[in-house]
Amino acid sequence: MANLTRADLEALPKYVPGRSPADLARELGIEEAIKLASNEVPYGPLPGVVEAVTEAVTNVHRYPDMGVLALREALAAKLDVPVDRVATGCGSVALCEHLVKATAMPGDEIIFSWRSFEAYPIIAATAGVTAVKIPNTPVHGHDLDAMAAAVTPRTKLILVCNPNNPTGTFLRREEIERFLDTVGPDVLVVLDEAYREFVTDPGVPDGMDFADRPNVVVLRTFSKAWGLAGLRAGYLVAAPEVADAVRKVITPFSTNACVQAAALAALRAEEEMARRAALVIAERDRLTAAVRELFADVPESQANFVWLPLGDKSVDFAKHCESNGVIVRPFAGEGVRVTVGTAEENDVFLKVAAAF
Ligand code: PMP
User: Fold this and answer.
1) Counts of helices then strands in the chain (DSSP H, E)
2) Domains in the chain, ordered, with CATH?
3) What is the whole-number distance in angstroms between the Cα of residue 1 and the centre of ligand 1?
4) Whose CA is nearest to atom 13 of ligand 1?
5) Which residues form the Aminotransferase class I/classII large domain (predicted)?
6) Spatial distance between the Cα atoms of 298 and 331, rounded to a whole number of angstroms
7) What is the pTM for the complete model shown?
8) Which of 98, 117, 331 to mutate to test ligand 1, by most ligand atoms within 8 A of the CB atom?
9) Of 3, 55, 291, 328, which has the maximum CB count within 10 A?
10) Are 327 and 33 in contact (CB under 8 A)?
């Protein structure tokens, strides 16, 4: 058969989701496997979410509100910005895609650290945009000076993931401020804060503190602390013109009716979200201390996962964990990302890790 798709797709890396625990349990003949691979929070949906979705589902023969007004208004009120500065999408990964689509043409450049979120290069490649990857510092963080120095007249977008996935490393207020001043106002800078709710270090600023600069976009998700990974809800705050441009290029109705209802319900359960995030944070700090006893150079994490820089041993380590019923996320030749689970899950992981 003739090749009906783009020739360059073959060379494109695939987005690798965490393996299904049911699948692994079946393979190993055990009752339950533990998944610490996708940075989810392990405590189930927030109170009110299931009821809201159950209610919304009774009306799914109708299109949802394309303007997503109730949810955008709730977000705008929470973040103290006008509603025209808020856009929502089918996960923050889709919003990333829309931001690239709204800013860059084939041949233009976008800059991000490497390693950072694995979707960034895929989004760049499918948009025909040149990905300029700036290597992380030796301590696994963003090299902001090198990123700023890489800006050319073709640069349209810079993606700064803070805290960084998969390394958990973080940027401080003065670093971001200096970076934004150096880059200037002509390039859009996206502060991808998928893990913002797990940040405890007061030196790590809320991206909203920079959101009044017209070239800054704050990107967040309901997938992690808010517990809606399976429903796909992300949002951004940007200058009205940028938010408008995103809404223009977005797939119509991509924040669906159930998602709108669920995200609103989740926002109403903010206190419970924070209580759960605090449990994750306490476990993160315990897990970090414990893995530091086993492995060298584990960076401090401000997210809900821990990075083990195991280099060439990364894939072997992940295989060892899987054969013991624990799914973690290897990045071949670099490291392994371990999502913080419940205390019991983390204990099982630590036992398995110690046996490696
Ligand atoms: N940004 C970062 C840094 C992430 O780690 C993720 C999820 N892995 C996302 C964005 C996308 O999240 P979602 O599409 O589920 O909102």
Assistant:
1) 12, 12
2) 17-45+271-354 (3.90.1150.10), 49-268 (3.40.640.10)
3) 36
4) 91
5) 32-351
6) 15
7) 0.96
8) 117
9) 328
10) yes
- Asked if residue 11 has pLDDT above 90, the reply is no
Q: How many CB atoms lie within 10 A of CB 78?
A: 11
Q: Where are the alpha helices (DSSP H) in the chain?
A: 21-28, 49-57, 69-79, 92-103, 119-126, 144-149, 173-183, 240-249, 257-268, 270-294, 314-323, 343-354
133 pLDDT higher than 80? yes
* Residue 315 in tokens: 């894939």
- CA neighbours closer than 13 Å in the CB half-sphere of residue 338: 33
ipTM score? 0.99
- Least-confidence region, from 6-10, 83-87, 242-246, 309-313: 6-10
Residue with tokens 């949906």: 45
Going by the DSSP 8-state scheme, the letter that residue 63 receives in this structure is -
**Cβ < 6 Å from ligand 1: which residues?**
39, 91-93, 117, 161, 165, 192, 194, 221, 223, 229, 234
**Residue 2 confidence class, pLDDT cut points 50, 70, 90:** confident
Mean pLDDT of the chain: 96
